[in-house]
Automatic annotation (TrEMBL):
This is DUF4390. InterPro entries: DUF4390. Pfam families: DUF4390 (PF14334). It comes from Desulfonema limicola.
Length: 195
């Protein structure tokens, strides 16, 4: 039995090493178009300040290969809301990290996506296109109740996104050193508004 298990581990290591040494994986954002935030907007409902945003160019060919291979992948979104003050340093009113985690089930041929900020069961979709849209979009995130804002004050919302982790079995964690070549992190995107 140990011999068979060792052969399985060897085969998995060989496949992952081959996959991660592929020239597509070794070309980082420097050689391709870097991921970036787009379509960011800040608006309000009757009770909350809402943030909308999208990430473009996050689903590169190399990231798609990792996802299709069944490795759970997490995108993190960092969003802050500061009150802009002229004399004192800005005051942070809200600072959140939202996560979207995707896992492809090769047997059922479906993608399962869990969003940390949605109080619902994981979403299941059949196409990579649907999964990509859900993974790269924040729609109507309630960053703060309007009642916590002061009339006549100025505020700043900042956001960025990052491919935060790839979850591998424990005995394969050393491969993360190679996987760091395909991670991305966007620049901060900022919107100022008056209330």
């Amino acid at each position: 039995m140990p011999f068979i298990l060792n052969r399985k581990i060897f085969f998995i290591l060989l496949c992952l090493t081959s996959l991660l040494s592929d020239p597509v994986f070794l070309s980082g954002p420097v050689f391709g178009r870097p991921a970036r935030l787009t379509d960011m907007s800040v608006t309000n409902s009757q009770d909350h300040i809402l943030v909308y945003l999208n990430v473009r160019d996050a689903f590169t060919e190399k990231i798609q290969k990792i996802i299709i291979s069944g490795v759970p992948t997490t995108f993190s979104f960092f969003i802050t809301l500061d009150e802009i003050r002229t004399i004192w340093i800005n005051k942070t009113l809200s600072e959140v990290t939202l996560t979207h985690t995707i896992k492809y089930n090769t047997l059922k041929n479906v993608f399962t996506i869990q969003r940390s900020w949605k109080d619902e069961k994981p979403l299941t979709v059949r196409t990579l296109e649907e999964a990509r849209k859900i993974m790269t979009e924040i729609d109507a995130f309630k960053i703060i109740p309007i009642s916590q804002l002061d009339k006549g004050s100025r505020y700043r919302v900042r956001a960025k996104a990052k491919l935060s982790k790839m979850t591998l079995p424990f005995y394969l964690h050393y491969i993360l050193i190679m996987a760091s070549k395909w991670e991305f992190e966007t620049d901060w995107h900022t919107i100022d508004f008056d209330y």
